Amino acid sequence: MTACPAPTADLLDRLAHLLGPSGILTAPSDTDPYCTDWRALYHGRTAAVLRPADTAELAQAVTLCAQAGVAMVPQGGNTSMVGGATPDDSGREVVICLSRMNRVRRIDPLDHTMEVEAGVTLKAAQDAAREAGLMLPLSISSEGSAQIGGVLATNAGGNNTVRYGNARELVLGLEVVLPDGSVFHGLRRLRKDNTGYALRQLFVGSEGTLGFITAAILQLQPQPRATEAALCAVADAKGALALFAAFRAQDPALIQAFEYMSGAGMDLVTRLVPGASLPLAEPAPAYVLVELATPRANADLRGALEDVLGAALEDGTVTDAVIAESEGQRMALWKLREEHAEAQRRAGASVKNDVSVPVSHVPELIDRATAACAALIPGIRPAPFGHIGDGNIHFNLVQPEGMDPAAFLALDHRIMDTVGAIVRDLDGSFSAEHGVGRLKPYMMPDWRGGAELATMRRIKDAIDPRGLLNPGAIFPPDTGNPARVTPDA
């Protein structure tokens, strides 16, 4: 495909006139923060960051860019783990950030729905639902920064997927600005609407390659009346899975989150993150954070938790456990889980594998991938953690102590391919909740080739025939062997 042209001075003037002083950034000092991803793996350039205030402004801005043939990169809170919202280094792409579109339009307590704009942070949406006596169950580590548009565009998963599903399961309706500037008006609150293709689902998980999600109707849940959390020490992932089976056998509807953490990962958190401390007598090879919740009145949730943990302690599945006695203690337990990514960043360069396998295969994945990566790079520090209850493990690997970070990152594809070979053998996926972005398109032909990738391309070509939206994300080049990008250290 021929490279898209750079935005002209005339186009930038027209966009400035449309969006006003608050709606466009052109000085490099202002645009630079939008050109580097959260992990600092990708560093791009842009002639302008567009910040429309509403859907009408966005539609007009997209129309102007489309008429000029200028490529556009949608960006929300810029929390992508795979460079999915970062412009390339050509300076030809404009970034379109929807952070000014940040209103919670309405909450319907009878329908249990929320209409929210794309620039609202997930945390703000959660707070608004809570104030209405309801709950938005989606929960991810970056919820204070991640915005609803990006969360839906990447089909985020998170901690509560085991009970409520990924973002996709929460979406009833969408409003989307298409690549030519036209608007898909799909903000419907209907649970049943069997009238042809469910177009909203095309945009959820499309990583900004098909349109700009501007607003959404999300399903809410009753606010839990009781919540209980416990941190448990186990021997390994097999023990963690046995504990999950025990809780599921008791009452699967009570499980709100079930998270696995390796002993190595927990050690990094407690050593490198201020305020994080292990509330158990001794370190363990692995840990589980389990959270139960129920909207039922007079439910003995503590009793249910203690029953399962008591039996697990007795049969040796769990070697030690602590139950949160207050909201502060519950948050302290969650801090140990949520700070894994930050602890790994402080420990040095890391390669992140957001993979999923059938739940029953998680222990084999962890054992085999740990051994394979240790053989590939002696001294490498595997620190797997994540959502063992739904089969999604972040099989992250930290550089060996003393190794040059750039040299380690230069091996990122070899590491990902090593883990990927095991994931494929276990009938899994190379991306569970982070998406493909700019980091992993080279993997698509092998994993999603043939009719599957060809169908994706036909959908992309039908909606965005000139490839103006988020070029470089998801899709590898049409021909030849795609060059594997080695991100900057």
Describe the structure.
- This protein is globular.
- It is 34% helix and 19% strand.
- The chain has 4 domains: 9-97, Uridine Diphospho-n-acetylenolpyruvylglucosamine Reductase, domain 2 (2-Layer Sandwich), CATH 3.30.43; 104-222, Uridine Diphospho-n-acetylenolpyruvylglucosamine Reductase, domain 3 (2-Layer Sandwich); 226-338, Alpha-Beta Plaits (2-Layer Sandwich), CATH 3.30.70; 348-436, 2-Layer Sandwich (Alpha-Beta Plaits), CATH 3.30.70.2740.
- The protein is α+β, with helices and mostly antiparallel strands.
- Belongs to the FAD-binding oxidoreductase/transferase type 4 family.
- This is FAD-binding oxidoreductase.
- Keywords: FAD, Flavoprotein.
- Residues 470-489 are annotated as: Disordered.
Which descriptors would you attach to this protein?
disordered C terminus, Uridine Diphospho-n-acetylenolpyruvylglucosamine Reductase, domain 2, Uridine Diphospho-n-acetylenolpyruvylglucosamine Reductase, domain 3, catalytic activity, 34% helix, FAD, 19% strand, 4 domains, Alpha-Beta Plaits, seven-stranded antiparallel sheet, 489 residues, FAD binding, alpha+beta, flavoprotein
Quick overview of this protein structure:
The protein is an alpha+beta fold and 489 residues long. It has helices at 9-19, 28-31, 55-68, 122-131, 148-153, 161-164, 200-203, 237-250, 263-272, 301-315, 327-338, 340-347, 362-376, 405-409, 412-425, 444-448, 451-463; strands at 24-25, 49-50, 72-75, 94-97, 104-108, 113-117, 134-135, 171-177, 183-186, 212-219, 221-222, 226-234, 255-262, 286-294, 318-323, 350-351, 354-356, 381-382, 385-387, 392-394, 397-398.
